[in-house]
Amino acid sequence: MTDQAPFADQETLLELFAGIHPTNNQPIFEKVLATPLANVSEYRLLKSPLFVRGLAALDSIKINEDARGRFTLLEHSGNLCVRVFLRQPNEDLEVQLTAELEKLGGSLDIKTERAMVYSIHFGVGFSSIEALLNKWANSDQAKWVYGNVYDPETGDPLNWWQALLQV
């Protein structure tokens, strides 16, 4: 998607629905950085989210004005959302993994004490990305998961990248 956003320099925080808390059954919302697109209620995410499923950096969404935090995905950017969860803070792992992913064109979008979120284009290749992640973040101290590759209900691959391969 080319830069169709007339307000590309305007960043805003959107509050998106991320799920239901498992113990208190309350809705969970995550604030994500976005920029408005030309149409009302449409935005492009600037970073991949930590908890909201199915989205990655530069994806386009439309906010449902009638339901707090609900949205519709308009267009995949081609980026994968990769989440790394740490049992304990590990600055060395973050530095090493970030450097390796940056060599492949990826970026660190979110860093907390026990989690990191990366965006990387699927064109790098799933096998290359997974080999790297398995080397650095596949132990009892760190685990990784895709945020926008599998259906959260069924676990089946979403295969959205197949349409991008056709272009």
Automatic annotation (TrEMBL):
<protein>
    <recommendedName>
        <fullName>Phosphotyrosine protein phosphatase</fullName>
    </recommendedName>
</protein>
<dbReference type="Pfam" id="PF14085">
    <property type="entry name" value="DUF4265"/>
</dbReference>
<dbReference type="InterPro" id="IPR025361">
    <property type="entry name" value="DUF4265"/>
</dbReference>
